[in-house]
Every structure is written in C-alpha cells, then in structure tokens.
Amino acid sequence: MRIDRVFTKDHQDPYKGIGFVDRVSKITNANGSVVSEIKNVLVPDTWSQVAVDIMAQKYFRKAGVPARLKKKFEPGLPEWLCPSVPDEEALNQLPQSEQFSRETKSQEVFHRLAGCWTYWGWKNNCFSGEKEARIYFDEMRYMLAHQLAAPNSPQWFNTGMNWAYGLEGPAQGHYYFDEEAGKLQKSQNSGTFLVFFSHSLQIWILIEGCNIEKMIIKRTSKWMRLS
User: Fold this and answer.
1) Cα–Cα distances in Å, from 1 out to 65, 74, 119, 137?
2) pTM score
C-alpha cells in the first residue's frame, strides 16, 4: 500500500506547531462535591474541557505503566517500530513506588494507538516499505492530536498496551484474523481494563466508579457531536 504525506513532513515531529498544556480534569456530583480529579493532564491547547475529561478519566491507563522500557527487537522490523517491554534491570534501580505509574500525556496515548496500528499493518504486509509505514505512523499521530480522526472507545483504552508497555491481561473473547493460519482465532490476552478495584474495597466505591463512567459516557456523545 502506498501512502503519501498530507499533514506531516519527513524527519519532522508530527506534533510540530501544537501547544501542549497541563489541564485539570474534575468530575463532580450535582451538589458540587468532587467525584474524581486528575491534575497535570498534558493535552493540545485547542482541546475542549469535555475532550480533556474523556481522555483523562476514561482513556488514560490508570496503573502499571513501567517507568523504564526497552525495545523487544524482531527480525526484519525497523527499530522504531519494535514493541517495548519493561526494562527489569533499570526498574530494579528505582524505588519500588516509582517503578510503575500511569499515563498522564495525550502523546502517550497517540503513540501507543498509532504505533500498534502501524505494527499490525507491517505484520500483515500492508505497507510497500518502511517509508510508507513511517508516513502512516506520523499522519495518524497528527490526526489524533488534531481530532481529525478517532477510533471507537475500546481502541482508546485497549489498543497498544502490549506494543507500547508490554502489558497483558486475561482474554476478553475477541477474535482476530490469523494471516498464517488463514482463519479467525480467539485472542489469548487483552491489553488493559479501564478501572481497577481491589477486592478489599467496599461496594460503594465500585458504585462511585460506575457513576464516574456514566458521567463520562454521557459527555462522550456530546463531545463527538461538537468535534
């Protein structure tokens, strides 16, 4: 597949010209009490507050992101496109409390989405060569940052977790087409879950989490219409 550049240029940061700023995402009850507040959310300065809330509250990976990563090299794959995995040696040099964190930057989400799509495309021989793969990677990141394109919700909080961070989870029953087998296969793992709860937490916390989800999803439809 041949792909030409439309929004980006060779050897130039696809985010060039975008002002990224720290924002605050706050979800409140009808009485004004705070349900959830996330500070230092780095997003493009053109994004609406609704878009910021959806990214921060719904799509950011909330835990388990390794503070140190290394490339998992694969034969025939460009280094920039190789998956990343936790760098255990480097992680062990950090205090335990600093070894894993969460996503806080929109660029991290754009990177894992576009990178994973490009990786899948390469594996399925969708690109004429590395040049086209790089163009696709850059163009997709540009379009995501500028809100010119967006996948459906499960992609935002699942896609790229394994490619970008080496994370895995229990299978969720999804199917994919296996090129080598020539047929649909059931996935063996999944990237992530949106909200995490310890078994020891009280049920009211779970209910509050569901309320947060409800408020965010309610806002999502409005954001999609405005965007």
Assistant:
1) 33, 22, 14, 14
2) 0.80
